């Protein structure tokens, strides 16, 4: 099996475990997902967390999924909810296929709605004058739902 060969060649590379786990999750093979996550735990292999950065007034701000550490979190989440509602009224449909966790649909929506790139962009909208270009940086890929939402 290709997965076994990949892990034998580079057993310490977290990305391989995450990739294989995501493939199984996408196929709904949750037992296999659990096996890979357990294997990572046993081997003490840590997944690289996703971060999004935005610079506002010469200061860098960092966000992670579900982040509520920012002093303006309440405002960020309020505006994010408002924008998401407006986008849905305009035809946007959240794509929960990008949530690779075995959780109910409502929980998947909650996870999608708190992705770091969405939080950073909303903070940029709140913290900069209207019409200011907003640029974010990520250390991982942007999921397809976030691309549609943005």
UniProtKB/TrEMBL annotation:
GO molecular function: RNA binding; zinc ion binding
UniProt cross-references to InterPro entries, sorted A to Z: DYW_dom (IPR032867), E2_motif (IPR046849), E_motif (IPR046848), PPR_At4g14850-like_plant (IPR046960)
Chain segments annotated as transmembrane: none
Residue ranges constituting the DYW domain according to the UniProt record: 91-148
Gene Ontology biological process terms in this record: RNA modification
Lineage top rank: taxon: Eukaryota
Family: Belongs to the PPR family. PCMP-H subfamily.
Protein name: DYW domain-containing protein
Species of the source: Dipteronia dyeriana
């Amino acid at each position: 099996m290709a997965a076994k060969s990949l892990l034998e060649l580079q057993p310490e590379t977290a990305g391989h475990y995450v990739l294989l786990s995501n493939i199984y999750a996408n196929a709904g093979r949750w037992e296999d997902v659990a096996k890979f996550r357990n294997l990572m735990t046993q081997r003490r292999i840590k997944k690289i967390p996703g971060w999004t950065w935005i610079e506002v007034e010469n200061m860098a701000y960092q966000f992670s999924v579900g982040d509520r550490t920012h002093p303006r979190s309440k405002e960020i989440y309020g505006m994010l909810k408002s924008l998401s509602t407006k986008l849905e009224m305009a035809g946007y449909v959240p794509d929960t296929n990008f949530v690779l966790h075995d959780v109910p649909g409502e929980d998947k929506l909650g996870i999608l709605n708190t992705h770091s790139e969405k939080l950073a962009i909303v903070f940029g909208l709140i913290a900069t004058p209207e019409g200011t270009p907003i640029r974010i940086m990520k250390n991982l890929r942007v999921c397809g739902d976030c691309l549609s939402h943005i």
